[in-house]
Design goal:
2 domains; about 15% strand; 5-stranded parallel beta sheet; Rossmann fold; alpha/beta
Length: about 300
């Protein structure tokens, strides 16, 4: 009866029994927060973190050509899969392509998109915005572009790791830098800093999907959000709170794109960020920035189990 007071109900699992109120409509899908007892389950990660994101079956075999780039966590993906003898393009090939040489330094969505537009569609890039280090800016000549294009045209699986929503940019044309501006080149009238928005990052991620689909319709894309925190923030607040905001913007943007492409068997999200933040205990080294090696291996084993044959 509609006016009848609904009693609490119990959710029983093999590890716990939880009590929830029965007076709220819960919808067709209702997945409750796991209790601490659930963390002891062998299937905890698949049931409480990967649920809704894992592919129906693994699809990466040893013959699939893989590239991982974006934030510094991308290098961990490349190294692990290389050791496991998957066909990963990484620095050992000695290629001049920037996404091989500097790929783990392309931590914002603007730079990832720009690389793809430059390689696939010959987008014109302003000189000296691709600073990888204070003394090194990347070439933009046709030889490098053609080598990047030849590489990309071989790829079956893109693992794209995003990490930053705080960016430095050119005030004259809004172009975002790879990292920052060398002190010797900084011009306050020309260069600025900003926190990019959810809408900007959502558009960038959507365009990344579109350009890959346009040029490589059979390729698969696996997005991840890097668990590696900001080294520093240039906002007037603590780095810890700024990092939370930065990651939240990217996570919402990723959710927007994953929602748009829901049901698309070529676009996926692997929750390395959630595994690190909500499951692992003390995952970082003493610098509180780099992950402990055993936890990188742990996360990558989960990736392998779900995506690799």
């Amino acid at each position: 009866m509609k006016n009848e007071k609904l009693e609490n109900f119990r959710v029983r699992t093999k590890n716990d029994e939880q009590i929830f109120g029965g007076h709220w409509f819960r919808g067709k899908n209702c997945n409750f927060i796991p209790s601490k007892k659930h963390f002891k389950q062998n299937d905890f990660i698949s049931e409480y973190i990967l649920k809704g994101y894992s592919p129906k079956k693994p699809f990466i075999d040893k013959n699939k050509k893989i590239i991982a780039f974006g934030s510094c966590f991308a290098s961990s993906v490349s190294e692990y899969l290389s050791i496991k003898n998957y066909s990963v393009f990484n620095k050992k090939y000695g290629l001049n392509s920037h996404i091989i040489r500097y790929g783990e330094g392309m931590a914002n969505t603007f730079t990832v998109l720009e690389q793809l537009l430059w390689a696939f569609e010959n987008k014109n890039i302003e000189q000296n915005t691709w600073y990888y280090s204070p003394d090194d800016f990347a070439r933009k000549d046709e030889e490098i572009r053609n080598e990047t294009l030849r590489l990309l045209n071989q790829i079956d699986v893109f693992v794209i790791t995003v990490g930053l929503s705080e960016v430095w940019y050119n005030k004259e044309n809004n172009q975002v830098f790879w990292k920052a501006i060398p002190t010797s080149e900084f011009d306050e009238k020309k260069h600025g800093f900003k926190l990019s928005t959810v809408d900007e990052n959502s558009r960038n991620l959507d365009e990344i999907c579109k350009i890959i689909k346009r040029n490589l319709p059979l390729a698969k894309i696996i997005f991840t959000l890097s668990p590696i925190p900001l080294m520093a923030t240039f906002r007037n607040q603590s780095c810890i709170t700024a990092n939370s905001i930065s990651k939240s913007i990217l996570r919402v943007a990723l959710d927007n794109v994953l929602t748009k492409y829901k049901g698309d068997d070529k676009i996926y999200y692997f929750p390395s960020y959630e595994i690190t933040k909500d499951y692992l205990v003390d995952p970082f080294k003493d610098d509180n920035r780099h992950m402990k090696d055993e936890y990188v291996s742990f996360i990558m084993k989960i990736f392998e189990q779900n995506y690799c044959l």
